[in-house]
Specification:
The complex is a heterodimer of chains A (116) and B (849).
Chain A: E1 6-12, E2 15-24, H1 29-39, E3 46-50, E4 54-57, H2 59-73, E5 78-82, H3 88-95, E6 103-105, H4 108-115
Parallel strand pairs in A: 2-3, 2-4, 3-5, 5-6
Antiparallel strand pairs in A: 1-2
Chain B: H1 3-33, H2 42-61, H3 68-89, H4 100-109, H5 112-133, H6 138-166, H7 168-190, E1 194-199, E2 204-207, H8 209-215, H9 219-222, H10 227-231, H11 234-249, E3 254-264, E4 270-282, E5 285-294, H12 296-335, H13 341-356, E6 360-367, E7 370-377, E8 388-389, H14 393-401, E9 405-408, E10 427-435, E11 438-447, H15 455-492, E12 503-510, E13 521-528, E14 532-540, H16 544-563, H17 568-582, E15 589-597, E16 602-608, E17 614-616, E18 622-624, E19 629-630, E20 644-647, E21 653-657, H18 659-662, H19 669-681, H20 687-698, E22 708-715, E23 721-726, H21 732-746, H22 751-772, E24 780-787, E25 790-797, H23 808-819, E26 822-828, E27 831-839
Parallel strand pairs in B: 16-19
Antiparallel strand pairs in B: 1-2, 1-5, 3-4, 4-5, 6-7, 6-11, 7-8, 9-10, 10-11, 12-22, 13-14, 14-15, 15-16, 16-20, 17-18, 17-21, 21-22, 23-24, 24-25, 25-27, 26-27
Helix pairs in contact in B: 1-2, 1-3, 1-4, 2-3, 3-5, 4-5, 4-6, 5-6, 12-13, 12-15, 13-15, 15-16, 16-17, 19-20, 21-22, 22-23
Classes of the chains: A alpha/beta (116), B alpha+beta (849).
Chain lengths: 116, 849
């Protein structure tokens, strides 16, 4: 069963953690990008997008991430993305060289540690 | 003697005597004129002569009525006058010879006996005269006086008698007359009817044997008595007098005037009679002959016949009324049937014609101020006639007048109606059809030779018209409701099932037989975001508009809950709450809600009081899915609804239906279910063919008593080839991925391979959706083939090609190129096709669990 992507946002001090589950495609991604962007206050230091439970991502999901990079960059905030290695999502992010635009982590803990 | 002969005799006697008096007076006066003896007393003789003249005149005048007694008196008076004349002439000149005339008369007309009496009177008179005036030889003179007239009288009378006897002609005539009289008498006596003749004073002069029998009075008793007193009861006598007077006063003869009179017998009993009376005038004498007939028997027969006729008429009337009442009942039945206006009006016009025994009947309806022929019976017609203007023709006038009308021998103008002109009718009866004070139409019946209409038929037609008007009203309301319900229901049933990749779904809906009301059966197929699909089969209790509108609410609500992504049990729970709280406790509905995930073939259903769905494994037997049973919607406020899950393998089919398919009047539902399972055994695998086959087997008539809904969904079996179409909208991507993964698993790709190929196809599909722009339109298709280990997939769209822009979309193509071995993008004027190939290496160890 394939479920469309769902979003959960948590605040950890100066960190905002956005957990996305399900499958992220063009039917959801543009709106979700705005939702996440608006959830990050100017005083936050960094955003962690957790894709640990994300089943699927396509170019629109990637576009969403690049959009967040641009948005956070203008406010000097950092973006950390968690995508377990070897999984389809990590593979796509690898293919688009997302590592050059933001920090990629295999696990949430390392992302939180680095961002915090 | 008959009155006629009598009349003749009397008249002759009277006139003869008058002549003798006149002649005697003449002679006497003549002797006074001639020279005569001085002793003659002239004055006295003149007085005697004048007296004789007066007597002659009276006799002549009364000749018709003179009686024998009067004649005798006149003769005797003559004798006295002659004696006085002798005396006044003088004693020296006695004329015994002058008595001869009186003697002659007496012997001629009177019986011999009476004639001698007159002679005796003469003898006495002359004897006295001689004693007074003569002395010498009175005996001689007396003898002379008596002897001369006696001998002369006897001789002359004998001579005359002989002459009379010898007068053959006269004798025969008299005899014939007598015979005739006798014959007439005989005829009259033998007549069955009484024959009575009255004289002008109403005295009976004829009375035959039948009259004797009829009244009990003998002829002798009756003759000479007044009719009114003898045989008429008191109360009839004045009438009798009036009629008699009337007859007598009418001029000339009258023959056979007929009167009905009540008569009275001698014993006082009364009887009704019929008198045929004439008036005959014979020689100035008026008589009233008449026949009288006792009509007691005839009246009795007449009365019997009348009673019989009345009975027959009463029986016929009773039968006619009974027939009419049953005819009216038929009309009411027809009027209140749940049917279309056309059907009802057609039925009614035939029945009205039957009830009235009419030659033809026509029903017109008012539309836009004109009369349209709605239905006719007994009218040969090839085309629908043109509408009639109000006020023209018979029908138009009835509509305008708003009153029933009847026409005998209708004019050409009245028949100008194209419906009637060819029928050939002799009488027309028309009644306006009224509804709420408005003329909605006209009902007309035509009579021809064998059946003419009269005013009494108007009442019947009026009754019929009331029922026809009722029927029309009823049908209009019904039609309006039926139309709305039908329209509503049609809009509530999906007019096109959504395209479901990897699935084949077909539905059939058979409305019940034309005349029934729209039912509450419904079905729906709902694509749920995430690739799943919801199947709905429901039946709302009740029929018509109410049921249809409830289906509408249930359908929107169910779609809303399903699209929100609720689990099947939750969806049904929410529907139940809707039915319970909002739609009233009188509403109830059964529902089957089944959700299928094409990606893994799992089905999950909730059954709210509905018939169990059928699962048909590929090539296997049909099996009812018995789980997931719950109460119907609307019977409890908060029941818990449980869902049951099952697996729908590739190639298997699930069948949903409503009770109309399996229920038959008088048959157990289990038999219907068995019939359905049996029909499915031989059914084709393709859902369309399967539905048609099932309907053919279970509803061979093409329509059942109730609506029938049938839905079949097949999980299309996967092979080396993949072919599916998807709508050009982002929501389609999810189900596309699910389906593609299922196929790729079937092709034994590794998880990573499957994910990568799916991602690449997703990018191509996203492009296809992008190309379609906001116009939506033609779906894009994905064609896949596995040849050995080589997967070859083409995503083709029919939108306008757009150059991949830098950034996001360019990234899509890069991804495809990165994930697939070969990529080929072919933009054409009708769309773009992206062909991708990838070699499968099979299951690879997972990098991460």
């Amino acid at each position: 069963m394939s479920e469309l992507a769902e979003l959960a946002i948590e605040r950890h001090g100066e960190l905002v953690v956005a957990t996305v589950t399900g499958e992220l495609d063009v039917s959801v991604a543009p709106r979700m990008g705005d939702q996440i962007g608006e959830a990050v206050p100017t005083e936050a230091r960094a955003l962690v997008v957790d894709f640990s439970e994300l089943e699927f991502i396509d170019s629109s999901g990637v576009a969403m991430l690049f959009g967040l990079v641009r948005r956070l960059g203008s406010r000097r905030q950092d973006l950390h993305v968690v995508a377990p290695a070897g999984r389809p999502v990590a593979r796509v992010l690898e293919l688009v060289d997302f590592g050059k635009a933001a920090r990629l982590h295999s696990e949430l803990d390392s992302a939180l540690a680095e961002a915090g | 003697m008959t009155p006629l002969a009598d009349l003749f005799e009397r008249r002759v006697k009277g006139r003869a005597l008058a002549f003798l008096f006149a002649a005697g007076a003449g002679l006497g006066l003549l002797t006074l004129v001639l020279p005569h003896d001085e002793m003659v007393k002239d004055l006295a003789l003149v007085v005697l002569a004048l007296t004789a003249v007066v007597i002659a005149a009276v006799l002549y005048w009364r000749a018709d009525r003179v009686t024998d007694l009067e004649l005798h008196m006149a003769v005797a008076l003559g004798t006295v006058i002659l004696t006085l004349a002798n005396y006044f002439v003088g004693p020296t000149a006695l004329y015994p010879m002058i008595y001869t005339w009186a003697a002659l008369y007496a012997f001629y007309f009177f019986e011999l006996r009476l004639a001698f009496a007159h002679v005796a009177l003469i003898a006495v008179s002359y004897g006295l005269l001689l004693l007074l005036v003569e002395h010498p030889s009175p005996a001689t003179r007396w003898l002379l006086a008596v002897g001369t007239p006696t001998i002369a009288g006897v001789l002359i009378s004998r001579l005359l008698t002989r002459l009379r006897v010898e007068n053959v002609e006269a004798g025969r005539r008299a005899e014939e007359l007598r015979q005739n009289e006798a014959r007439t008498r005989l005829v009259l006596d033998s007549a069955p009817d009484a024959f009575v003749t009255l004289d002008r004073d109403g005295l009976i002069v004829n009375w035959n044997a039948a009259a004797e029998r009829m009244f009990g009075w003998s002829t002798a008793e009756a003759i000479g008595r007044p009719m009114r007193a003898l045989v008429l009861p008191e109360d009839q006598r004045d009438l009798h007098d009036d009629r008699r007077r009337d007859l007598l006063e009418s001029s000339g003869n009258v023959t056979g005037r007929l009167f009905e009179v009540d008569f009275q017998r001698r014993d006082g009993s009364r009887f009704p009679g019929e008198a045929t009376v004439s008036k005959v005038e014979i020689g100035g004498e008026v008589v009233l002959p008449g026949f009288i007939r006792d009509i007691t028997e005839r009246l009795r027969r007449l009365e019997e016949r009348e009673v019989l006729l009345r009975e027959q008429a009463a029986r016929a009337e009773a039968e006619r009324v009974a027939e009419m009442v049953s005819g009216m009942q038929l009309l009411v039945d027809a009027a209140l049937a749940h049917r279309s206006l056309d059907a009802i009006v057609g039925d009614l016009v035939t029945r009205v014609r039957g009830v009235l025994g009419a030659h033809a009947a026509v029903i017109y309806l008012v539309e836009d101020g004109r009369l349209i022929t709605a239905a006719s019976s007994g009218v040969d017609r090839e085309t629908m006639p043109a509408p009639l203007e109000l006020g023209s023709c018979f029908a138009g006038r009835v509509a305008e007048g708003r009153e029933p009308q009847m026409v005998d021998r209708p004019s050409a103008e009245e028949l100008a109606d194209p419906d009637l002109e060819k029928v050939g009718c002799d009488s027309l009866l028309g009644v306006p059809l009224m509804a709420e004070g408005e003329v909605t139409g006209v009902l007309i019946v035509c009579g021809a030779e064998e059946r003419q209409f009269g005013p009494e038929d108007l009442g019947v037609l009026r009754l019929a018209a009331d029922r026809v008007a009722l029927g029309i009203d009823h049908a209009r309301v019904y039609e309006r409701e039926h139309r709305i319900a039908e329209t509503l229901q049609r809009t509530l049933l999906p007019d096109r099932l959504p395209h479901l990749p990897g699935l084949a779904v077909e539905a059939r809906y058979l409305p019940a037989a034309a005349e029934a009301e729209v039912g509450g059966d419904w079905y729906d197929v709902i694509p749920i975001p995430g690739g799943r699909v919801g199947l709905v089969m429901g039946d709302v209790a009740g029929k018509g508009l109410a049921a249809a509108s409830m289906v509408g609410r249930l359908r929107s609500a169910l779609r809303a809950y399903a699209l929100e992504g609720h689990e099947p049990a939750r969806v049904v729970e929410q529907l139940n709450r809707l039915v319970w709280t909002e739609l009233g406790d009188s509403q109830m509905a059964t529902l089957l809600y089944l959700v299928l995930d094409p990606a893994d073939g799992s089905v999950c259903w909730v059954n709210a009081g509905h018939l169990p769905p059928l699962l048909l494994a590929d090539g296997g037997p049909a099996q009812f899915l018995q789980g997931g049973h719950n109460v119907p919607l609307g019977v409890m406020p908060f029941p818990s609804f449980d869902a049951t899950a099952e697996q729908l393998e590739p190639g298997a089919t699930v069948v949903l239906y409503t009770d109309g398919l399996v229920e038959r009047p008088g048959d157990h539902i289990d038999n219907g279910l068995a019939r359905l399972a049996g029909a499915l055994r031989d059914a084709p695998g393709v859902p369309g063919g399967l539905c048609d086959h099932v309907l053919r087997m279970l509803v061979p008539e093409g329509a059942a008593a109730d609506d029938v809904a049938l839905l079949a969904l097949r999980n299309t079996p996967m092979g080396n080839r993949f072919s599916a179409e998807f709508p050009t909208e982002p929501q389609a991507l999810s189900s596309m991925r699910g389906l593609l993964r299922r196929w790729l698993r079937h092709a034994e790709g590794s998880d990573q391979e499957i994910a990568e190929i799916t991602t690449a196809c997703g990018e191509a599909a996203t492009n296809a959706i992008e190309h379609a722009g906001s116009s939506g339109g033609t779906p894009f298709e994905i064609l896949g083939r596995v040849d050995g280990r080589e997967v070859d997939i083409t995503v083709r769209d029919y939108g306008a090609w757009r150059r991949p822009r830098e950034g996001d979309h360019g990234r899509g193509i890069s991804l495809i190129e990165a994930l697939m071995d070969e990529v080929e993008v072919t933009p054409t004027h009708e769309g773009t096709s992206v062909r991708m190939r990838r070699r499968l290496n099979g299951a690879t160890p997972e990098v991460a669990a």
